[in-house]
Specification:
66 strands, about 725 residues, four-stranded antiparallel beta sheet, mainly beta
Length: about 725
Amino acid sequence: MLYLAEASRLGAHGPGFDLLTSHAVVSLDAGLEIIGHGKAGIWDADVGPEAIITLGSDFSLSHWDRAGVTTHLADGVYHITLVDDLAISVAMHGDVTAVDRSGHVRWRAERAVADVPLQSGIVGSAAARLVIAFGNGATLRDVDTGRSRGELRHDNAVSAVALDAEGTRAATGDIAGVVRIWNTTTAALVATCESHTGIVRAIKFSSDNRSVVSGGNDGDVRICDVASGATLHRLIGHSHQVVTVDVAADGRTIVSGGRDGKPRIWDARTGLLVRVLDGHRGTVGSAQFSPDGDHILTLGVDGTARIWDREGMALGSLQGHGGTIFAGRWDIDGRHVITTSIDGTIRRWDPRRAIKTVLRHAHTAAITDLAVSSDDRWALTGSADRYAILWDRRSLQPIVQLAHDDKVRSVMFGPDSTSALTTEEAGNARIWRLPAGVLIARLGPGITAATYAHDGRVITAGDGMVRFWTSSGSVLGSVPLDYPADQLVLDPSGRWLFVRGTASSVLVIDVAARVALVRLEVRDRQVRSLATDGMRVAISDGAAIRLWQLGTWAPLAPLVGHRSPVTAVWFGSGGGLMSASPDATLVWGRDARLVAKLADTNAVLALAMSPDGSLFATTGGDGELRIWDAASYRLLLRLPGHRLPAFTLRLTHDGTAAISGGNDGRLVTWNLARRTRSASELAEIVRCRIPLRLEGDVALPRDLDFGDPTCRSLVLDR
């Protein structure tokens, strides 16, 4: 945001700039609530229903209420945990102390932890009224009195400890890599797990308390049976130390993170990798599931907190701290996130504000086609699972299912969006009344392509004919066709119909007269792609693109620049054209000169242009959506969404959203709304919300005035 404001001051403007600014402001808007601000950075925090305790970079322990009122509790503290209203800490010299919210010391166990801060810490359980302080050993202590309840004896220093939900079992890991399971009532050893080959850095019980997940310096994540100590799965993939692990509430999914900066999601039942989470730069110190298990919070030394769904889709990034985020927790309500940073602030975020993506597991097989109604109210998908589904476009709630006998090949709304046309592999086309999903007519068999004419009539190809039908399914006329067709394309005026198929030519039909006019020949054995802009038609010819003038059908200069066969062509704004092949995606000017090459190593599978021609979107084999500036062809945003390639993509007619369908069966929408902001507005947002200032191209810390009434009243999305 800081650099965008500076760019605006220097004259940056345009739709691409507005889109980037809108996305940056969204993240700030998610974290408008600043609970408190200290003079030092905040290394750690623990969150309770009424209060938050923090550990400052000056080793101070503080208590904060939800209004931001702070009480200094202690100095010289290294580790903290919150149990009910007691802040329990480990001091530099090894004392373990329990302090209430007023600063009153309830109890102190002197020199209870040796070798502080080397591999030490503290965990607690309100259910078992128990805390475990660990270092050279691990000691069980009563929360209310501080009395010892036993020792968990190790041969080596203890480096990680976890308690199960009831506090009846503890898992410990040591610097030799050994993981042990204990009964906390008797302090008896229950089981010993297979050892890591390095220090154990993180431990977590599964939700059913039957297994323990551990991560260590060897880069392994291991699942150990609590009762027997047997290794259930060894999860291999991290290239450096694993420092954080967590298990979803249903016990089916694990997330891990560490020094390689690439958190991983695993299937806990099979041990298989689900997804690598790309986005952080540098070590990821914490990865946590939300209480409902639907989202994952990751914290990185890059200064960001990121939100993902449990299958690894990036949903949003929480950016606003003026430096590294040291700690973060899901709040007690399970919907908000609390973070602390080197900048000394405690921020409470609403991740829903930062999430600009809605997804739906729409089909059980690949989505083969996608359409958006003219009023942007509905979306229609077709799938290999033999269904077409009508959706509410904004909420992605299904409205009606349209059953077919075979894989659905294409879907299309009628001109007024009250009807739909679908085709299937079995050779049938169907006309439906929407939104009820009533079948109006079934056309076929033998149909291989279909489309709506501009007046609402239907055109089909198959069985050696191009046929014209009324909107109710009555035949109006036909034109002979001597090759199998797989696509029917109308020019923007609706006058010319281009019939593409398994041939080295394209038949052109006059729609009004229903007569064949001309065949456009290419040298390749089969036309792979075709597009028209109302003045020209472009047809792929191997690695070349041939063009003809509409009406006169005079050939124009071919476009030569690809090394591989051209798989798709699209006309853009201003008469330009884009072409995709396995070797590159190229941009051509109206004068047939090569203008640009998209900076994208993924082959473009689908492209959609915004209504105003200022932006365009692409999808590729990696399942990501990319947003580009149509004037400069500069990549603006990369938005992950699909686990598999996405072949279908549309932008809404108002330009505020992109929607795609993937081979993973997902239907995904992204919010592309963009608002123009003046340089003065951007400067005000930065002044009130960004704890940084620029000196040249270097960002330096800056104190925010949290008492400024103009900042308190600033609403970023107004």
